[in-house]
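Researcher: Predict the fold of Fpg/Nei family DNA glycosylase.
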Amino acid sequence: MPELPEVEALASFLRDHALGAVIGRIDVAALSVLKTFDPPLTAMQGQDVTDAARFGKHLGVQAGGLWMITHLSRGGWLRWTDNPSSAAPKPGKGPLALRVHLFTPEGSTPAFDLTEAGTRKRLAVWVVRDPNEVPGIARLGPDALAVGEPQFADLLRAKSSRLKTVLVDQQVLAGIGNAYSDEILHAARLSPFATTGSLTDEAVHELYETMRRILLDAVARSVGQDAARLKGEKRSGMAVHARTGEACPVCGDTVREVSYVDRSFQYCPTCQTGGRILADRRLSRLVK
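Model: Structure tokens for Fpg/Nei family DNA glycosylase follow.
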């Protein structure tokens, strides 16, 4: 799933490539992605693109006083095409969900596609006058890169939950998902199952500084990359996430995994849990 660094990079990419362009035809290949009907999607056609922005893990494109907001969910992505097909896509064929044709001031006719891999289709698109009309945006907590340390500490103290749960809760902090929470906790040498109430002031400070360092580093590596290369860039920067069975780059221990029904997370026992192996939820209860 694209998280704060990748969505920030996609917004930056669109600001560099789409601002000033006029939106032409919008092809919808999967009707299920549209979550609003007023204003209609066609209201954006013929309008100049004036902005692109990130709202938590949502991506927004502004044109004609309207916002097209996208949540890419787990399998979604944005693809830029310099020479798109002029033929309308066939609904339900392939990963394409929606295509936005553009006319640039230079006279080119590129397009950007919203695509979704896999069989579980969760990619969502809204057309709204104000981004806060999107329920997921209206419920967002402060952005993970905008929150100050005192507020961060207050947010942690207000929740009596496991650190992993709090970091991915978008109503607490916006922008962090499964992958970067794994990386933040590993770098801060904290167990995913440590509770917020157990943290000392020093641990809270270290977690805050680590969160900012991990995210800012990922943003710096991602912004400026071609949209097609962002997934590989994200993977290359990971120390433990999606690296089950590999050696921890810090201590050399084997990276372990805890799996749930439809997701999993990774950690290093030596760096994070004092050498203890957390039980896989598929097999037994969690070891605290």
